[in-house]
Design a protein that fits this description.
Oxidized Rhodanese, domain 1
Length: about 140
């Protein structure tokens, strides 16, 4: 069966429909308690670290964690006063995920241009999973 619409077309469509922040724009938002960074990468990708303060919500569970009707719902996503800024490795999956959340009715969602790779290249602060866990225990 031939693919009639490739991943690039899907990503381009998503990018045209969702809010995209540059690394510098997100850096400026980090101090705002109403900003929640969300890492949607697979757990196997976290060895390179996360953006400081990011909440890990794997792409495969995101819709289930967001929907209050789901048995997997996470209360964090019910906070309409927060802006959820998603990222993945390169910014493709996060664009698709942000579009999906927008399609689900969320208006407070965006993603980071260039994903984690762009974040690191732009000098964004990161932490390891272990560092993040240690901070939560305090």
């Amino acid at each position: 069966m031939p693919i009639t619409k490739g991943f690039r077309a899907l990503v381009d469509e998503a990018m045209a429909q969702v809010k995209t922040y540059t690394v510098d724009e997100v850096k400026a938002k980090l101090a705002d308690p109403k900003t929640q960074i969300v890492d949607i990468r697979d757990v196997r990708e976290l060895g390179d670290g996360l953006i400081v303060g990011a909440f890990h919500a794997p792409r495969c569970m995101l819709e289930f964690w967001v929907d209050p009707e789901s048995p997997y719902h996470k209360k964090l996503f019910a906070d309409e006063g927060r802006e959820f800024i998603l990222y993945c490795g390169l910014g493709w999956r996060s664009a698709l995920a942000a579009k999906t959340l927008k399609d689900m009715g969320m208006t407070n969602v965006a993603h980071i241009e260039g994903g984690f790779e762009g974040w690191v290249k732009g000098g964004g602060a990161t932490e390891t999973v272990e560092e993040q866990k240690a901070k939560r225990k305090k």
